[in-house]
Amino acid sequence: MGAWAIAVHGGAGVDPNLPKERQEEAKRLLTRCLDIGISALRSNLSAIDVVELVVRELETDPLFNSGRGSALTENGKVEMEASIMDGPKRRCGAVSGLTTVKNPVSLARLVMEKSPHSYLAFSGAEEFAKKQGVEMVDNEYFITEDNVGMLKLAKEANSILFDYRIPAVGTCGASAAMDSPLQMNGLPISVYAPETVGCVVVDKQGRCAAATSTGGLMNKMSGRIGDSPLIGSGTYASELCGVSCTGEGEAIIRSTLAREVSAVMEYKRLNLHEAVDYVIKNKLDEGKAGLIAVSKDGEVACGFNTTGMFRGCATEDGFMEVGVW
């Protein structure tokens, strides 16, 4: 019997002027999710069960960009995506383009367990969801007043707006960022804070699992698929570790960031902390991203090259931490 560990994230790339109340709200949600995961692990739930349970909680709360509260496409709709992976046999499931599935991460798990495939998208994924009897809602359920307002700002700026929670006036730097935009694939973007969610777990049996879920980018092109549902990029779990990534999706895709952590542990014989540091420093080129990870030995680690990352972690020996910067 080994030691369990869990980590959660709510996105990398936090605006340095993020209001204090917003930070505290995020910390409370992350703490609640950690408590749910800790309780489940103490009840001997498997790692794959725990990551699904925690990410469902994150999808249900509108604070971060997944499930209810997801970012809006250029057409004012929500297109969600998620993935899940079970380390012991590297089973995985992923979904994209969901518009009516209440909890995308659970549909991703059903793809893994109840279909002959690993990835379903758009109308095919929605049809599979109906056949599986998962809870479905109108697209309006996912749309919040904040998101409608931020989509309007993004369209006025003719830009993809990453941190759709931050107003364009007041204490934050959204408007300033529009004057000096970052680049994604050579094109301008705005404030960098995607707020994708994810969870990684290793249970007492040393089984690792990972799950990631997101609504994508505010004002994204309809049909855009990011890193979150891509196994090896946004999500990966093996017999060695479980990893969930967040940040600039296109950079994460190019670097197959999640898989890189497992690969350098396997081939370079690095421990978890060394592996996370290595890939963040060496595999992102000019991209901005972060990740959380656990190892089969009960270690937990996080890394990011942005100003901050909403994150929390806990281990069986009583360690628990929630942070933003």
TrEMBL record:
- Source organism per UniProt: Gossypium tomentosum
Tell me yes or no: is Hydrolase among this UniProt entry's keywords.
yes
An example Gene Ontology molecular-function term: beta-aspartyl-peptidase activity
Residues binding substrate are 224-227, 246-249
Q: Which residues form a coiled coil?
A: none
Protein's name according to its UniProt entry? beta-aspartyl-peptidase
State any GO BP term from the record: proteolysis
- Pfam families in the cross-refs: Asparaginase_2 (PF01112)
